[in-house]
């Protein structure tokens, strides 16, 4: 994933994350990378474990928040950090996968992300690419 697939935007107390991609799913994957990059240097995270999740959500904006919050819940609950993400849609269901490892002492911890919010939530197609953005609570 290139550094240009995600970015951040200003928000008073929290952090705005923005993911971009050629498909809606790629933009969601980039938003997930942006979220976890707030917490750790993703280039240092090993792909040792895979977590799979699925959910139903018709609204793309709510699907973004659900995707990010499900990933964060899995990471927090299992003591993991993720570095690679994959998401597909099939028959109205979102099927996701995240790869990473348990937190280890050598991983530099950044700011802990507690959850994705509805603040400044936007999923739209811009200039032929998708952008998925929201504010994450830190």
Ends distance: 24 Å
Q: Tally of extended strands?
A: 8
Helix content: 10-25%
CATH top-level class: Alpha Beta
Name given to the CATH architecture = 3-Layer(bab) Sandwich
Structural class: alpha+beta
Radius of gyration: 14 Å
Q: Spell out the CATH superfamily.
A: Archease domain
Q: Total domains, how many?
A: 1
Count helical runs: 2
Strand content: 35-45%
* Biggest sheet layout: 5 strands, antiparallel
* Net shape: globular
Per the CATH scheme, the topology name is Archease, Possible Chaperone, Chain: A, domain 1
Walk me through what this model shows.
- There is one protein chain.
- The longest helix has 19 residues, at about 60-80.
- The protein is about 25% helix and about 40% strand.
- Helix 1 runs parallel beside helix 2.
- The protein has a single domain (about 15-135), classed as 3-Layer(bab) Sandwich (Archease, Possible Chaperone, Chain: A, domain 1), CATH 3.55.10.10.
- The protein has about 140 residues and is α+β, with helices and mostly antiparallel strands.
- The chain has two helices and eight strands; from the N terminus they run ββαβαβββββ.
